[in-house]
Amino acid sequence: MAKATILVADDDRVVVELLSLGLAARGFKVTVAADGMQVIMAVRRTPPEAILLDVMMPGGTGFDVVKRLRSNAATAGIPVVAMSASTDPALPQKVQDVGANAFLLKPVCLDEVAATLRRVLEKASAAGALDS
């Protein structure tokens, strides 16, 4: 199986670096974005297999990004795992309501991130097989 490309999007450079190194060590290829607009531009250039997306970023919140991705047929099927340090108990449901596939609370455990990404990738792959 080829390495899945994951777009890691977070405005905290330390978080991006840690996630990038950790995911690469767990068999993923990683690209990065620092804000919502960079995510949209990166996805248009080279769509990743999945996106790991901070909810609160400049240049468009994670909510805005997910809504834009889901409204475009070319990007609607890309799995999105949202993450946030917010302890708002309604946040996981809110991000899933706009179309995110999963939610992780920061600080994240790299093994949990990798397992969640694998799970959403498998579901997307199975859904794609059913659609063909």
SSE inventory with pairings:
Blueprint: E1 5-9, H1 13-25, E2 29-33, H2 36-45, E3 50-54, H3 62-70, E4 80-84, H4 91-97, E5 102-105, H5 110-131
Parallel strand pairs: 1-2, 1-3, 3-4, 4-5
Helix pairs in contact: 2-3
Short overview:
The protein is an alpha/beta fold and 132 residues long. It has helices at residues 13-25, 36-45, 62-70, 91-97, 110-131; strands spanning 5-9, 29-33, 50-54, 80-84, 102-105.
Description:
The protein is 46% helix and 18% strand. With 132 residues, it is of the alpha/beta class. It has a single domain, classed as Rossmann fold (3-Layer(aba) Sandwich). Helix 2 (36-45) packs parallel to helix 3.
Entry keywords:
five-stranded parallel sheet, 46% helix, alpha/beta, 132 residues, single chain, Rossmann fold
Please state roughly what percent of the residues sit in beta strands, choosing from under 5%, 5-15%, 15-25%, 25-35%, 35-45% or over 45%.
Answer: 15-25%
> Largest sheet, if any?
5 strands, parallel
Provide the gyration radius in Å. 13 Å
Instruction: Give the overall form.
Output: globular
Secondary-structure content class: alpha/beta
The H/E string reads EHEHEHEHEH
Overall average pLDDT: 94
- Main-sheet strand order equals 2-1-3-4-5
Give me the count of strands: 5
Text of the CATH class: Alpha Beta
Instruction: Determine the number of helices (DSSP H or I, runs of at least 4 residues).
Output: 5
Q: What name does the CATH topology carry?
A: Rossmann fold
Distance between the termini: 20 Å
Q: Please identify, by name, the CATH architecture.
A: 3-Layer(aba) Sandwich
CATH homologous superfamily (4th level) name: Response regulator
Question: Could you estimate the helical fraction of the residues in percent?
Answer: 40-55%
Pick out the low-confidence regions. none
Number of domains: 1
